[in-house]
Specification:
Helix content is 30%, strand content 4%. By secondary structure, the protein is mainly α. Among the domains are: 50 residues; 130 residues, Cytochrome c-like domain (Cytochrome Bc1 Complex, Chain D, domain 2), CATH 1.10.760. Strands 1-4 form a two-stranded antiparallel sheet. The chain has a two-stranded antiparallel ribbon with strand order 2-3. The chain is extended. The two termini are 35 Å apart. Bound molecules: heme C.
Amino acid sequence: MSRFPSDLKGPHPEEPAQRASRRTQDGGACFETRPAVAPQQEDRWGIGRLAFALSATVLLVTAPALADPPKPLGLGRPALPAELQAWDISVLPDGRGLPPGKGNAKRGEEIFIEKCAACHGEFGEGVGRWPVLAGGMGSLKADRPDKTVGSFWPAPTTLFDYIRRAMPYGNAQSLTPDEIYSLTAYVLHMSDVIRDPEQELTEKTLPQVTMPNAAGFFDDDRETSERHFWRDDVCMKECRSEPPKVTGRAMVLDVTPDSKTAPRVE
Ligand code: HEC
């Protein structure tokens, strides 16, 4: 899913680690976070192999020193509180970061038709190839799962974050908090997550909405659930007890169109 805003660095240092260790029930890995790596400064091949080898050694020897914080260069200035506030618009799954405001699906529908339906369709069905926002309930285990806000997203709060951060596409961050609460309510209403079109969503009530697939996300449990696969004496040679069996051939399965049946490419 660019299913979640990826821009969650900053004021909540515990968050990326939590997200890194989550995966979805249908096996898709969601997020991967990597530690920042200090840039290599010395590896210029132009100087020659010896120089490279030497500098690599120097890098190895000085690696601990690179971990020290860099010396200030005398550039820039500390960010102002207002600048930080404008940048820090993340809303976390538990609702931290939601601004005060309110809205319901009835008002949301009007705004949606004006600002969103051109792409997403009046009922979230998606126009052309623009994303579908509603439906797909119960399809996650199907061959072609229909992942929408209603069928897939685990938290209602990150829907607020997403709309505020990224929509309407092409005019992002132009909506007021009340408009976003209303749109959030309408998007949830389209998937029947919220039934009453007049139910007010606020910074207090939005986190209490339960999403249908909330239980479909869980902390990575492979260390326990897959422990029985792990072994110390890994087999590296002649590990099969019987010869491999061919169960299908690409030509029979017709995955590769041949010259007779394939559409002509100009
Ligand atoms: C110009 C077309 C366009 C308009 C208008 C538009 N969107 Fe989108 N919307 C997109 C595209 C494209 C994506 C997917 C972006 C991506 O994955 O990076 C998207 C994704 C979304 C998603 C996430 C869907 C998912 O399951 O990942 C939501 C929610 C959403 N839009 C809500 C809205 C709302 C609410 C509005 C009106 C304020 C709106 N959009 C207006 C094009 C549009």
